[in-house]
Amino acid sequence: MAKKIALVTGAMGGLGTAICKSLSQSGFTVVANCLPNFPPKDEWLAKMKSEGFDIAVAEADVTDFDGCAAMVKKIESEIGPVDVLVNNAGITRDAMFKKMEKGQWDAVLSTNLDSVFNVTHQVLPGMADRGWGRVINISSVNGVKGQFGQANYSAAKAGILGFTKAIAAEVAKKGVTVNAIAPGYIGTDMVMAIKQEVRDSIVATIPMGRLGKPEEIGGLCSYLVSDLAGYMTGATLNINGGLHFC
What we know:
Elements: E1 5-8, H1 14-25, E2 29-34, H2 41-50, E3 56-59, H3 65-78, E4 84-87, H4 102-130, E5 133-138, H5 141-145, H6 151-171, E6 176-183, H7 189-192, H8 196-203, H9 214-224, E7 236-239
Parallel strand pairs: 1-2, 1-4, 2-3, 4-5, 5-6, 6-7
Helix pairs in contact: 1-9, 3-4, 4-6
């Protein structure tokens, strides 16, 4: 039987890489989305191959609806239908609200929230028609609780939670589950590049006293796409070391 196909957006960052690896280890054919002409693409692919991961690439700007449609059509024609979608793409443009520019708001809402519509819209009907599918939307602890200086990011990540619940209800009888993961502070390269003293102050607020591991998010994705998670839908899974209880 052919392997199921998993598409991960924003796949070449710290979380995306861990998710791609975990899904590949779980037996999926993984397709990693990145921006067109993304400079680190070849280096990332070489690293994945050196670690034993055979991962395909699909280029598209996830803020572009038509570009997403073309990307999925290409995947379907060259590899096969998308059975699993992980909406992981995201950016930050932090600023106190009174100083936040319209461009900062638009960029974050477009990349973090509009993208979820743009890509999910291309694959959800096919999943429903085939009677099986998994959609995982990566939100954030700051979408659950809010965060000073992140009105744009918190709004987008909170929007993902509402989207998840609504879409889950629409396809629940079709064998398709739709869930959200809300990570706390995870030890990606970006976070580890923060000055030590700043990182220490962040860790001091986390009851578990450490950052999360990217692999812990990847492992949660692998569970959610498994048949064992077939009765879970519309859920928000908080994985934040006790930083916020809800």
